[in-house]
UniProtKB/TrEMBL annotation:
It comes from the Bacteria. The keyword Transmembrane helix applies. Residues 155-469 form the Glutamate synthase domain. Belongs to the glutamate synthase family. Pfam families: Glu_synthase (PF01645). The chain crosses the membrane at residues 6-39. It comes from Thalassovita aquimarina. PANTHER family: ARCHAEAL-TYPE GLUTAMATE SYNTHASE [NADPH]. This is FMN-binding glutamate synthase family protein. Keywords: Membrane, Transmembrane, Transmembrane helix.
Length: 533
């Protein structure tokens, strides 16, 4: 409770100096000073807007003081820790502005270094369009889906209750409800706070089968049927991996398992909650497709999909071969980039395992085009999707929608303290400490979730119209321009082309190593055909 210590000391000093006033008028000065500070502290504790002040009354103002100092110290601060942070100060301030509903205009032009290699931009038209309605949606649900869902093209990516606090889940879900977009549960099951918010849910089924598991951790079809029947549940997402820790399971220590978490996950209290690195229910590509078919039947035909970060590209091709062989095609695939976030992951996993989003997406998109299955499903993309440009770029490269986890964490007050794994989140977002999460005012923050989404899509509509297009999904690789190492500029089409439909079925060599991997992939096993055990 040391974070309340300054407030506590000030209060005691105010009382002591008040007593002192009866002995000497000089005590009036400290009494006035400490009383003013005490009043400030009380105001900090009850005001809804700034979570950091609710958790650090009085001392929390130091943060704003340092943030406010310009330009010298700020420049030093920027240069000193800019590259330490997953999201730059500019990226975060754009999110905060949109969440607060502050106009995201800048005077004097761009700060981007437009002649640096790697700089990217979108091409605009001399004949721009004005797009009034920016509630952009895609219909998710393939041939075998009986309950297709009109999904917003920007949604809250998976973050489990457990990794996030109850107030965070409630604020996210309430904001999603108001904005009509979806909220992915993450692998921690559907909690009472997801239900309370009433917003559309994507129910994620991870290797721990939380909310639909037997006592020994296997999949329980009846419990799943019950969960999936909830009208809030619009889609089912089978998690194979996430970019920040691919191939790595998770453990929620017994000490963090509250009664609410145990309820949501369907696990006992007092025992560590282990998510194994792989699914016990299937071990082959065909087994995976059959499990997708089972989930679709048990959910009365709701859209069922998979989420993964591309690892061995051949293994993704094994899954696609199994789709062809079983004719069981998921309704959607979410490609997560290695740059994605997590509540906690081993450093080397976070840094060195998994494919970045752009490469993973274009590979999956083109493999599905190569076998003529691309039009039978939708592709979602996640991994640092926090601005309209991020979304437009990823749609141009083959995705149908984008999800964001940390973007929405910033909208509910995350300050990137990177303390998610300590339970000491300073703003009550990633903690199970009841006192700490009190800092997150649900009414105030759910409005920010709603506004961040709305204003990001508004900016996307403006960029889409400026390009002379009518819908963000009209963006194509040739609309994206990039500056290469030799400062030459290239189009997205030259670097990330859409490969010809059916090229894999025709065994057509198109380069990029597709055909070689396709011939080594097989539907009945993830091991390569020429694998010698
Ligand atoms: C706090 C936190 C918890 C997460 N929990 C899950 C999870 O339970 N299941 C999952 O598939 N991904 C999880 N992720 C990954 C995100 O859903 C997403 O794929 C990734 O963070 C990329 O998005 P971002 O860059 O927008 O954060 C989590 C991410 C964060 C930051």
């Amino acid at each position: 409770m040391e974070r309340y210590s300054v407030f506590g000391v000030v209060t005691v000093l105010a009382i002591l100096s008040l007593i002192g006033v009866f002995f000497s008028g000089w005590f009036l000065i400290p009494y006035i000073l400490f009383s003013l500070l005490m009043i400030l502290g009380v105001r900090d504790l009850v005001q809804p807007r700034h979570s950091i002040l609710r958790n650090y009354p009085i001392i929390g103002h130091m943060r704003f003081l340092f943030e406010g100092i310009r330009p010298e110290i700020r420049q030093y601060l920027i240069e000193s820790d800019q590259d330490e942070e997953p999201f730059s100060r500019d990226e975060r301030s754009l999110i905060y502005q949109r969440a607060k509903g502050v106009e995201d205009k800048r005077p004097f032009g761009t700060k981007q270094r437009v002649y640096d290699s790697g700089f990217q931009w979108l091409t605009h038209s001399v004949n721009p369009h004005h797009i009034e309605d920016h509630d952009f949606r895609v219909r998710v649900g393939g041939r075998d889906c009986r309950q297709p869902y009109d999904l917003s093209i920007y949604n809250i990516s998976a973050m489990s209750f457990g990794a996030l606090s109850a107030n965070a889940i409630l604020a996210l879900n309430t904001g999603a409800k108001k904005g009509g977009f979806a909220h992915d549960t993450g692998e921690g099951g559907i909690s009472r706070y997801h239900r309370q918010g009433g917003g559309d849910l994507i129910y994620q089924v991870g290797s721990g089968y939380y909310g639909c598991r037997t006592d020994d951790g296997r999949f329980d079809p009846e419990k799943f049927r019950e969960q999936a029947a909830n009208p809030q549940v619009k889609m089912i997402e089978l998690k194979l991996s996430q970019g920040a820790k691919p191939g790595h399971g998770g453990v929620l220590p017994a000490s963090k398992i509250s009664e609410e978490i145990a309820e949501a996950r369907g696990v006992p209290m007092g025992v560590d909650c282990v998510s194994p690195p792989s699914h016990p229910e299937f071990s082959t590509p065909i087994g995976l497709c059959q499990f997708i078919g089972k989930l679709r039947d048990l959910s009365e035909g709701k859209p069922v999909g998979i989420k993964l970060c591309i690892g061995h590209r051949r293994e993704f091709m094994c899954i696609v071969k199994a789709m062809l062989e079983t004719d069981i095609v998921p309704d959607f695939i979410i490609i997560d980039g290695k740059e994605g976030g997590t509540g906690a992951a081993p450093v080397e996993f976070a840094d060195r395992l998994g494919m970045p989003l752009v490469e993973g997406l274009t590979f999956a998109h083109n493999t599905l085009r190569g076998v003529g299955l691309r039009d039978r499903l939708k592709i979602g993309a996640s991994g640092k999707m926090v601005s309209a440009f991020d979304i437009a770029r990823i749609l141009a490269l083959g995705a149908d929608w984008a999800n964001s986890a940390r973007g929405f964490m910033f909208s509910i007050g995350c300050i990137q303290a990177q303390a998610c794994h300590t339970n000491h989140c300073p703003v009550g977002v990633a903690t199970q400490d009841k006192m700490r999460q009190r800092a997150l005012n649900v009414t105030n923050k759910s409005e920010r979730v709603y506004r961040f989404h709305k204003n990001t899509l508004k900016a996307l509509a403006e960029m889409t119209g400026a390009a002379g297009l009518d819908h963000p999904c009209d963006f194509l690789p040739h609309h994206l321009m990039m500056r290469e190492k030799d400062r030459d500029m290239v189009t997205g089409e030259e670097v990330y082309p859409y490969l010809p439909e059916g090229f894999l079925l025709r065994n057509e060599e198109v380069g990029f190593g597709y055909l070689k991997r396709w011939t080594r992939a097989r539907a009945e096993s993830f091991a390569p055909v020429d694998y010698i055990p």
